[in-house]
Amino acid sequence: MTSYITATVLFEGITAQYLLKSTYQVKQGTVVLLYGVGGALGQIMAPWAKHLGATVIGVVSKASSVDRARVLGCDEVLVWRKGDLAEKVAAFTNGHKADLVYDGVGKLTFEASINSLRPRGLMVSIGASTGAPPPVEVGTLKAMGSLFLTRPGLAAHATDVNEYRERAADVLEAATKGMFPTAFWKEFPLNEATAAHEAIQSGQASGPVILRP
Q1: Which of 27, 107, 166, 180 is most deeply packed, by most CB within 10 A?
Q2: Which CATH architecture has domain 3-156?
Q3: Cα separation of 212 and 18, whole Å?
């Protein structure tokens, strides 16, 4: 891997690593509901989770992304805003629902995500592209099956040098073994950083973006 690609893989890969192995120990039989499969983080998480033995239900924003999500290893792909997502998750899992949800959309999907969880399932809020999710009453988590809720961040998972090195080594080993794609989507010169940001926010980018000085 070139230095640019290595940096890109590490940036998203370390996040994927702690989400899959520290926030929740994804393993054989885990049912994962993952939003944003077509994005840079999703393209690492989906195949890596599959390699760990999970059943991966991907959520995409448009029908044109369905085939790409399946290539990445998703067992089922749902298009956000097309029908009741929680009902589709329940139907696909024969009523089991998801063990955990990785939701980077936020406000507009939070309720569907919570409703997609099995009792004692884990809701992982990893972003808020549509705005911050609403506050949650503690009693609501109990009433919906003693659910767990977390909002993990990089600072709490990679500030210790030794911990960072361990995560980075795990990411690079997984990348070397071909567990997830390492190609980037597009290069932008630094003076077009705004265009790069817009491509990511709009969902146009189908993978990591590189800014060159």
Answers
A1: 180
A2: 3-Layer(aba) Sandwich (3.40)
A3: 28
